Amino acid sequence: MELLSINVHLRELLVRCTLNHIFIESRIRNGHFRRREKNSSSGDVKKWKSDRVYIDKHGKWRIFDHKKMSRKRCGSLRGQGWKYGSGFVDGIFPVLSPVAHQILNFVRKEVDPNNVWAALDTLPVTHETWDDLINVAVQLRLNKQWDPIALICQWILYKSSFQTDVMCYNLLIDAYGQKSLYKKAEETYVDLLQARCIPTEDTYALLIKAYCACGLLAKAEAAFVDMRKYGLPPSAIVYNAYIDGLMKAGNPQRAIEIFQRLKNDGCQPSTDTYTLLINLHGKASQSYMALKLFNEMRSQKCRPDICTYTALVNAFAREGLCEKAEEIFEQMQEDKLEPDVYTYNALMEAYSRAGFPYGAAEIFSLMRHMGCEPDRASYNIMVDAYGRAGLHEDAQAVFNEMKRLGITPTMKSHMLLLCAYSRARNVDKCEEIVNQMSESGLEPDTFVLNSMMHLYGRLGQFEKMEEVLTAMEKGPYEADISTYNILINIYGRAGFFERMEGIFQSLPSKNLKPDVVTWTSRLGAYSRKKLYARCLEIFEEMIDAGCHPDGGTAKVLLSACSSEDQIEQVTTVIRTMHKGMEAALPA
Question: Could you list the residue ranges forming a coiled coil in this record (predicted)?
Answer without folding.
Answer: none
